[in-house]
């Protein structure tokens, strides 16, 4: 008797397949492989609903005790069709222990990028005081929480670093060398300038808020990729969307995509306020914005599954294959109009949308997605 069998799920390429999950892992997948077999839990999707590896949101804020940006991991996670969420620097060395304890209670898999400021984001300007950056306490926290802390986070914009310019980033790069974790850098208003930030980054480092419309945008005034960003992409820097309340512009994203600068990861930068009041609402809504710009459903899905797993170094996630974790998202890809608003108030109308139906974590927890959680009742949508 297996733990879970899903019958007749539809892959994004249209193939209809069964999946068998046991002890948290996918043990078989393929057309009709579950015929004649039984499991404790069985779901039949009758070839109607889509399935993919569980969606991964690489930039969220889900430490409930954080005073500024907080949410419940399961509301932005499984209730929204997302099986793995990564908190991007809400906590630093001082409160990562408490965050870890809290996160273990969630059904959603939770990981953390540790803020290089030991206080995390308790105030808006955590890097304005360089004494907040303490190498010893950071390295200790990384060691204590190996496997939970999967990267470092540095917010490099004027409101965060104050008069310190590039210094916090230079310190982050030194600290990173001792633990080898990827560094996620937030960009926004200068100083420091995007060019000097990008020049410090190496293969595997992540630029989040990559399509922001602020002065530190990745495009020059002619709409071309800034040379420092072009060089960074060639070196293997990862572009992460990190939509957030203020950090996603359709105009920038559209122009970047025309220059073939596709995002490597699509993430939400979601927290309670921008989930309930927009413009983020959910990871699915952010994914739908890319569909509305003509990005293929296959590419959008890759950004929240295999790409995210690779760049976040989560080796057993992101694929529906034998031996991988039994994390699965069930969804519809519906031809239905949807009005979408970016962080600048610009509107686009999409004609196709991902609608999460359920999230399955480790083959055991099956959570039906809740449209109310993301504050998007269907009256906003016009059926075709
Ligand atoms: Zn953020």
Automatic annotation (TrEMBL):
Instruction: Name the source organism.
Output: Xenorhabdus budapestensis
Task: Print the keywords alphabetically.
Answer: Hydrolase
Enzyme class comes to hydrolase
Q: Which Pfam families match?
A: EF_0837-like_N
Name-wise, this protein is: Amidohydrolase/deacetylase family metallohydrolase
Q: Which GO terms describe its molecular function?
A: dihydroorotase activity
Q: EC annotation?
A: 3.5.2.3
């Amino acid at each position: 008797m297996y733990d879970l069998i899903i019958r007749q799920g539809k892959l994004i390429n249209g193939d209809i397949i069964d999946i068998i999950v046991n002890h948290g892992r996918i043990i078989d997948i393929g057309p009709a492989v579950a015929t004649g077999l039984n499991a404790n839990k069985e779901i039949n999707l009758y070839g109607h609903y889509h399935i993919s590896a569980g969606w991964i949101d690489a930039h969220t804020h889900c430490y409930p005790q954080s005073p500024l940006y907080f949410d419940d991991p399961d509301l932005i996670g499984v209730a929204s069709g997302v099986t793995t969420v990564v908190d991007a620097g809400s906590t630093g060395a001082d409160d990562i222990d408490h965050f870890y304890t809290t996160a273990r209670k969630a059904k959603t898999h939770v990981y953390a990028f540790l803020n290089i400021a030991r206080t995390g984001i308790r105030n808006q300007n955590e890097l304005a005081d360089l004494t907040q950056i303490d190498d010893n306490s950071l390295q200790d926290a990384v060691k204590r929480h190996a496997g939970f802390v999967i990267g470092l986070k540095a917010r490099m914009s004027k409101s965060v670093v104050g008069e310190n310019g590039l210094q916090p980033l230079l310190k982050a790069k030194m600290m990173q060398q001792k633990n080898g974790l990827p560094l996620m850098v937030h960009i926004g208003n200068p100083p420091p300038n995007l060019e000097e930030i990008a020049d410090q980054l190496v293969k595997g480092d992540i630029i989040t808020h990559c399509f922001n419309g602020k002065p530190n945008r990745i495009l020059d005034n002619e709409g071309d990729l800034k040379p420092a960003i072009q060089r960074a992409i060639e070196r293997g820097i990862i572009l992460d969307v990190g939509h957030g309340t203020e950090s996603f512009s359709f105009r920038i994203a559209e122009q970047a995509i025309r220059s073939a600068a596709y995002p490597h990861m699509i993430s939400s930068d979601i927290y309670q306020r921008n989930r309930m009041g927009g413009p983020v609402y959910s990871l699915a809504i952010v994914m739908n914005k890319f569909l509305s710009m003509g990005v293929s459903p296959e590419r959008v899905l890759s950004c929240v599954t295999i790409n995210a797993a690779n760049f976040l170094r989560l080796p057993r996630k992101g694929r529906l294959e034998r031996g991988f974790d039994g994390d699965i998202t069930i969804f519809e890809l519906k031809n239905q109009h949807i009005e979408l608003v970016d962080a600048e108030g610009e509107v686009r109308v999409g004609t196709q949308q991902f609608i999460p139906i359920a999230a399955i974590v480790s083959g055991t927890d099956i959570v039906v997605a809740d449209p109310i959680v993301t504050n998007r009742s269907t009256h906003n949508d016009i059926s075709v």
